[in-house]
Specification:
Structural class of chain A: alpha+beta
Order of helices and strands of chain A: EHEE
Largest sheet of chain A: 3 strands, antiparallel
Largest sheet of chain B: 6 strands, parallel
Strand content of chain A: 35-45%
Order of helices and strands of chain B: EHEHEHEEHEEEHEHHEHEEHEHEH
Radius of gyration of chain B: 19 Å
Distance between the termini of chain A: 28 Å
Oligomer: heterodimer
Strand order of the largest sheet of chain A: 1-3-2
Number of strands of chain B: 14
Strand content of chain B: 15-25%
Structural class of chain B: alpha/beta
Radius of gyration of chain A: 13 Å
Number of strands of chain A: 3
Distance between the termini of chain B: 30 Å
Helix content of chain A: 10-25%
């Protein structure tokens, strides 16, 4: 199993700024998730399942999901 | 049936968010059947149509697991319909002997009575260790203690000739919980659904073949107040029959750019139908980005992530009947705005 010899599943939550006057694009959302993984030290992690689960005027979009962390050597971090 | 060209349509009813219609035991199936008739070609995910011992087999409905569905919508995967799949079955190494026997008998029944091609059947080397949880939004989630055991067993099945995989994981019994009582009464979230999705996503991502999941649980005591939408899960000893039937005709997954005839591609999509309050998933957003008409159906759920809040253009439908009318209008080349007056 290349890259996932001992994977871990890690819940996460990310808030992302949102401006309804600008068309919503996937790429910035995925970049926000990647940035959150990097902040937590989840090297090589990718979002396995995610969705926007709230929209708030001040905080923007709440993205909840489960990340797939391929590298067992990395710390799991908090559960978001 | 109309003679006009098919309008490949994506039907999404996200799992584990308590959708009033489709949030229970395959109770999205009537809507899926109607939309399949209206569009001539419906792509949807197992949770919409899986009703444990009940199922409806329709060649116009393409059964595609959620991880693959997201990649299909993003144009990264194409779907290749085929007459049948050889369905391998992966049983959780943590299942008790009686539950194992029940599942093996379902497999034999589906071979003997439905003529499905099933096998090999194997158990994971270790208990998968399903853990259930809820997110801040109240959506059901879950994780596995041993995803490596799941993936290794999946590899063994694929290498032994399985072209699709049904997974049965032993889920925690929660017979006394308030959440289960609410679900059985028709007012709660399917607490198992989030973890089920994680299991199947993990396997499809790793193997690139169709996969779907059925939970293994001990039987519940009969409940005279059981909501009809949840009743399909209490008809038998397992949830496996619908998964075996669905996978038996699931399309192959081909990485784009793919070649071949009769492929279904994201570029072919003519509409996407989703609950009006749950438009924040990857598939809907990918479709919206490419200008696929979005039909937002009133279908109350935990979330309030609507078209206006996200800034997405959408056709509003008050029911799945109305959504089917909109799909039919699009298929016939009728501008939906011509069907209403200000």
């Amino acid at each position: 199993m290349p890259g996932i010899a001992s994977p871990r599943l890690v819940p996460f939550t990310v808030w992302h700024p949102h401006d309804t006057s600008v068309p919503l694009r996937l790429r910035p959302l995925l970049q926000a998730i990647e940035a959150e993984f990097a902040r937590r030290g989840w090297a090589g992690a990718e979002p396995l399942r995610w969705a926007i689960t709230a929209v708030e005027p001040d905080r923007g979009l709440r993205i909840e999901g489960i990340g797939l962390q391929a590298d067992p050597a990395c710390p799991a971090g908090d559960a978001g | 049936m109309p003679d006009s060209p098919l309008l490949p349509t994506l039907l999404l009813i996200p799992t584990g968010i308590g959708c009033d219609l489709g949030g229970y035991a395959g109770d999205g199936l009537p809507a899926a059947r109607l939309l399949a008739a209206a569009s001539g070609c419906l792509i949807t995910h197992p949770n919409v149509v899986n009703a444990a011992s009940l199922y409806w087999s329709d060649r116009r409905i393409h059964y595609v697991e959620g991880w693959a569905l997201d990649r299909f919508a993003a144009g990264e995967l194409a779907l290749a319909p085929r007459p049948s799949q050889r369905v391998g079955v992966l049983l959780d190494g943590g299942m008790e002997p009686e539950l194992l026997l029940r599942h093996r008998q379902v497999i034999e029944a589906c071979q003997a009575s439905l003529g499905l091609t099933i096998g090999p059947v194997l158990q994971s080397e270790a208990p998968l260790g399903v853990r259930l949880s809820l997110s801040d939004s109240g959506s059901s989630w879950g994780t596995l203690e041993r995803p490596d055991a799941l993936l290794r067993a999946g590899e063994r099945l694929r290498d032994a000739g399985a072209t699709a995989i049904a997974v049965v994981a032993r889920f925690p019994d929660d017979s006394g919980s308030a959440a289960l009582a609410a679900y059985r009464a028709g007012s709660g979230v399917d607490a198992l659904a989030g973890a089920e999705a994680v299991i199947s996503h993990l396997l499809v991502r790793h193997l690139g073949i169709p996969c779907a999941h059925a939970p293994a649980l001990l039987p519940l005591d009969p409940d005279p107040q059981l909501d009809p939408r949840a009743a399909a899960e209490e008809l038998g000893h397992t949830f496996l029959p619908c998964v075996l039937v669905g996978l038996s005709r699931a399309p192959d997954l081909r990485r784009e750019p793919a070649s071949g005839s009769s492929l279904l591609r994201a570029a072919d999509l003519g509409a996407v139908v989703a609950p009006a309050g749950a438009l924040g998933g990857a598939a809907v957003l990918a479709c919206a980005e490419r200008g696929v008409p979005l039909i937002a159906v009133e279908n109350p759920c935990l979330l309030q992530v609507g078209a206006e809040a996200l800034g997405l253009p959408a056709l509003q439908a008050r029911s799945y009947s109305e959504a089917a009318g909109l799909v039919l209008a699009l298929r016939e080349g009728i501008d939906p705005s011509a069907l209403v007056r200000p």
